[in-house]
């Protein structure tokens, strides 16, 4: 069930949805996933809820109407979870195509501009990347490690999007817990031939940064696993992640990167 979009550099280029839909065909709705408390059906409901909200918001903007907003995501997803799974999967495919076409239209004047009432205040180009990343990460939630997933998750534009736009969300839970207590902190996650990713806490506030590599201690991994770690996941094979950090520093890093 591929979508028409294939060019990842185009605002409608969404190769991750093709991979997600192809994988979903072999995942039964009641299969457990890496998202606690969710089967594959709930993961799809979560994605359809987001896709249809963004579609509604984009259409409202183009028609000059107030855009619908959401304050309680869990409540919004309940009606989707109650849908028949076959209906839900069809709505994911058709909804993604419609959303992508609307994004293409909105991005045409300037993909770096934010559209009032659309998404979370992100520019349209960042929303495209955000949804690509959602499909990449949630595919891993369905099936875990595999070569196709590694190729998708390793795309540097997805990591860069998380660093630019999502550090507050991805660090919020960790900062509110044990990861946010204690002295200022910094640690690096390193991949060969790529910038180091710095995770730090200064005066109780956390941030990510991509910086030039150095030869200091770091957690060393591959690009796909690094994105998973940033999202509070861990690859199935623990040998993919190797730590050169002291134990206390590694523990603090893990406490910070606990997902949301």
Which terms summarize this structure?
alpha+beta, 5-stranded mixed β-sheet, 9% strand, 260 residues, globular, Four Helix Bundle (Hemerythrin (Met), subunit A), disordered N terminus, Nonspecific Lipid-transfer Protein, Chain A, 2 domains
Rg to the nearest angstrom?
19 Å
By DSSP, the count of extended strands is 5
Q: What's the shape?
A: globular
Beta-strand content: 5-15%
Order of strands, widest sheet = 3-2-1-4-5
In the CATH scheme, the class of the largest domain would be Mainly Alpha
The total of helices stands at: 10
Organism: Polymorphospora lycopeni
GO molecular function, one term: isomerase activity
Keywords: Isomerase
InterPro entries: DinB/YfiT-like, MDMPI_metal-binding
Description:
It is a single chain. With 260 residues, the chain is an alpha+beta fold. The protein has two domains: 15-153, Up-down Bundle (Four Helix Bundle (Hemerythrin (Met), subunit A)); 165-256, Nonspecific Lipid-transfer Protein, Chain A (2-Layer Sandwich), CATH 3.30.1050. It has helices spanning 15-24, 40-62, 73-81, 85-107, 124-143, 147-153, 156-165, 167-176, 223-230, 247-256; strands at 185-190, 196-202, 205-211, 219-220, 242-243. A five-stranded mixed sheet has the order 3-2-1-4-5. The longest helix is centred in the N-terminal third of the chain and has 23 residues, at 40-62. The chain starts with 14 loop residues before the first helix and ends with a helix.
Can I get a quick summary?
The protein is an alpha+beta fold and 260 residues long. Helix content is 50%, strand content 9%.
